[in-house]
Specification:
There is one protein chain. This protein is an alpha+beta fold and 240 residues long. It folds into two domains: 136 residues, Jelly Rolls; 73 residues, Winged helix-like DNA-binding domain superfamily/Winged helix DNA-binding domain (Arc Repressor Mutant, subunit A, Orthogonal Bundle), CATH 1.10.10.10. The chain contains ten helices and ten strands. Strands 2-6-4-5 form a four-stranded antiparallel beta sheet. Strands 1-7-3 form a three-stranded antiparallel beta sheet. It has a three-stranded antiparallel beta sheet with strand order 8-10-9. Bound molecules: zinc ion.
Length: 240
């Protein structure tokens, strides 16, 4: 899709961009393209030069801490945020792994243009720093979640976070993807999927996980669900 097809304030589908006034979003969109990201597509690997920042507008992406060949998800990013925060703040190379979890569109913007905008626009700076604060809080919460909470609760919370960002109860994610993102063995995820199916919360079929009852899934979720969900909602409704 060409830039001109969505170069209107409030039209991209990403809340960070759409909260900006037409003058600032126009400057940002002048250096952008709408792109489609595939599931599991790697956006950055540690050490790579970050030339573009991604604003999800349909896809859901993740930041992951890499350790050798393994990685574990530290934050999900949907239409409420951006991927490539370090590049906006001045870092040239990625420090962590970023990938798409759910396929879909994203507004891809040149990182250099966003650094210039960060220096020149107080409105953009305020929005980025609000997202930065929320992103750090999500990573902190995920650290607690990853080390202290039982896998079935973590899986339920993760699925609810995907539903919220995708606006859908039908998630094109496999159990293998869930295991990789949560940094656990596939067998553990299989057991939890069976447990959640027994509760009538989800069903799995042909490489998809479908949420049948958000209420039942919320009841199975760990205590991270409420604060993580509220944080994502807050980012979407913040006015600058
Ligand atoms: Zn948790």
């Amino acid at each position: 899709m060409d830039t001109t097809a969505f170069a209107y304030a409030g039209m991209t589908g990403n809340a960070l961009i759409d909260q900006l006034g037409a003058d600032v979003s126009g400057r940002l969109l002048a250096f952008s393209r709408m792109v489609h990201l595939e599931a599991r597509e790697t956006l950055y690997a540690p050490g790579e030069v970050v030339r573009h920042v991604y604003f999800p507008a349909g896809c859901v992406a993740a930041a992951c801490a890499a350790d050798g060949g393994a990685s574990v998800e530290t934050a999900l990013v949907g239409r409420e945020g951006l991927v490539g925060l370090g590049a906006v703040l001045g870092e040239r190379r990625a420090r962590e792994l970023a990938c798409a979890v759910l396929p879909g569109d994203a507004v891809r913007v040149e990182a250099a243009a966003l650094r210039t905008l960060f220096a020149e626009s107080a409105v953009w700076r305020r929005l980025v720093l609000r997202f930065y604060g929320a992103h750090v809080r999500q990573i902190s919460r995920r650290a607690v979640c990853n080390t202290r909470h039982r896998l079935c609760g973590r899986l339920a919370t993760w699925l609810l976070a995907l539903c919220q960002r995708a606006d859908s109860d039908d998630l094109p994610v496999t159990q293998e993807t869930a295991a990789r993102q949560l940094g656990v063995r596939r067998a553990g995820v299989n057991e939890c999927v069976a447990d959640l199916e027994g509760r009538g919360a989800i069903a799995h079929r042909r490489g998809r996980l479908q949420v049948l009852s958000r209420g039942a899934l919320t009841a199975a979720a760990c205590s991270c669900h409420a604060p993580l969900s509220e944080e994502a909602r807050w980012l979407e409704r913040v006015a600058v």
